[in-house]
Specification:
single chain, alpha/beta, Rossmann fold, 2 domains, 25% helix
């Protein structure tokens, strides 16, 4: 029970104990209620230029961030080991320093000499880039106060530790305490901060879930080790859209932006080939041209083989079953090999029709023209369903020189330079395939593509 105290129990001095307001919290514990430092104001009276984006100089990253980093914000960049996170952030601090700003790169995994070696190899060495090899939070905050940068990179948050929290380095308690302290420092000093985060073997960000709630922006850096293509995907953004995608290419001299990645996902050939179909996938808000390749071989096993790369295996089997049932082409009895070009992953249902057309083209030996794209989702009844962003997809196809598109039946705004051929069912799409098919070569074995009419 609270009562009046006139004498301090610690120093035995009279009149030194101040009265503060108390509030009751969960568990019956008393806590001091802070007095508001500033009064609440109408939202319309807040200046609109208080929050701005400062470009990092890396265009594809700025695209994902909504224009750049915001002063006082904290960005979490997560990715698998070896995907190129440190290389990308070294390029960011280098471009930041070239713009006349001061940047601090804190490495908890490498020594300062190792960071300099990578910076010289990638051409990212600059006198306004400061490097500190620290893993103690207090020392990191001291470096921030001494250098006074406008951009801080912490690589990585799982290697930082503080004596104010229990637990091992990288544990839930430590990561939460370190992130909270760094976020407070960024808000207090108005500097932009980028934290590097580890991921688990399942691809999720390591550490507590509150880590993603504490920061302002969460982006995921992903890519296949067998491919030079890297993608930065926005997952959370308090200052812009959270569904943007940035494309990069990793090479021995560093990392570079890929403003037009569609060419990486197309197989360059002079003549059309059976078993290929081109589609336009929508990754976030970004349309990407992708190519599906199919190879069908007569199976001599009781269970035909299925080998799929870049496409969901269950979805590919479903499309093969629909193609067999609705069109009469027994592709399910064959060994089916499906793949995408350039390591692209097609998770958008709009690529269903491209998978079906590629398998039908491989079965019948009828190659599609290289200037044709196919877009649409395939239903179990053999119907073609509309997909979102069709106008944006067709505009991207027209920009890259495609002249014909096979799309589901619907009302679209077709851009100039491309002709949209609509189909209601997969049978109608296959009829268009036979009409557009290029004359096959002598080595191609033709099969009859008989269509089964739906009852």
């Amino acid at each position: 029970m609270a009562k009046w105290v006139g004498r301090c129990p610690e120093c035995a001095t009279w009149g030194t104990v101040d009265e503060v307001p108390l509030i009751k919290v969960a568990g019956g514990r008393a806590q001091r209620s802070d007095v508001a430092n500033s009064p609440a104001v109408p939202i319309s009276s807040i200046p609109s230029d208080t929050t701005r984006h400062d470009p990092t100089g890396v265009d594809e990253l700025d695209r994902v961030l909504g224009g750049g980093v915001v002063p006082g914000s904290v960005t979490l960049l997560a990715g698998e080991p070896g995907v190129g996170k440190s290389t990308l952030l070294l390029k960011v601090v280098h471009q930041w320093a070239r713009a006349g700003h001061r940047a601090l790169y804190v490495s908890g995994e490498e020594s300062a000499g190792q960071v300099r070696m990578r910076a010289e190899r990638t051409g990212c060495s600059h006198e306004r880039v400061y490097v500190a090899a620290e893993s103690d939070l207090d020392n990191v905050l001291a470096h921030i106060d001494a250098v006074k940068p406008t951009l801080v990179v912490v690589d990585s948050v799982q290697t930082m530790s503080t004596t104010d929290a229990d637990g091992v380095t990288g544990g839930v308690t430590q990561v939460r305490a370190v992130t909270t302290a760094l976020t407070t420092a960024a808000k207090r000093s108005g500097l932009a901060m980028i934290l590097v985060g580890h991921v688990t073997k399942d691809g999720a960000i390591a550490g507590p879930r509150t880590l993603e709630h504490l920061v302002d922006v969460v982006v995921h850096f992903e890519g296949d080790r067998q491919s030079a293509l890297r993608m930065v995907r926005g997952l959370k953004n308090r200052f812009g859209a959270a569904d943007e995608v940035g494309c990069f290419q990793l090479h021995e001299h560093g990392i570079s932006c890929v403003a037009d990645p569609s060419g990486l996902f197309l197989d360059q050939r002079a003549l059309p080939v059976c078993g290929t179909a081109v589609t336009v996938a929508l990754d976030g808000k970004r349309p990407l041209i992708g190519e599906v390749q199919a190879l069908l071989i007569d199976s001599y096993n009781s269970t035909p083989r299925r080998a799929v790369s870049g496409i969901d295996n269950a979805r590919a089997c479903l499309i093969a079953a629909v193609l067999t049932k609705r069109s009469g082409a027994p592709v399910t009895k064959c060994d089916i090999y499906l793949s995408t070009v350039g390591g692209m992953r097609l998770t958008d249902p709009s690529s269903d029709l491209a998978v079906a057309m590629a398998m039908a083209s491989a079965w019948a030996g009828l190659p599609l023209p290289t200037t044709t794209v196919v877009i649409g989702e395939v239903g179990l009844a053999g119907d073609l369903r509309q997909v979102t962003g069709m106008e944006r997809r067709l505009a991207e196809a027209a920009r890259l020189g495609f002249t014909t598109a096979v799309v589901p039946d619907g009302v679209y705004t077709v851009p100039k330079g491309i002709y949209a051929m609509q189909a209601r069912t997969i049978n109608e799409a296959l009829d268009l395939l036979r009409e557009m098919a290029v004359a096959p070569t002598r080595a191609t074995t033709l099969r009859p593509l008989e269509l089964v009419k739906d009852p």
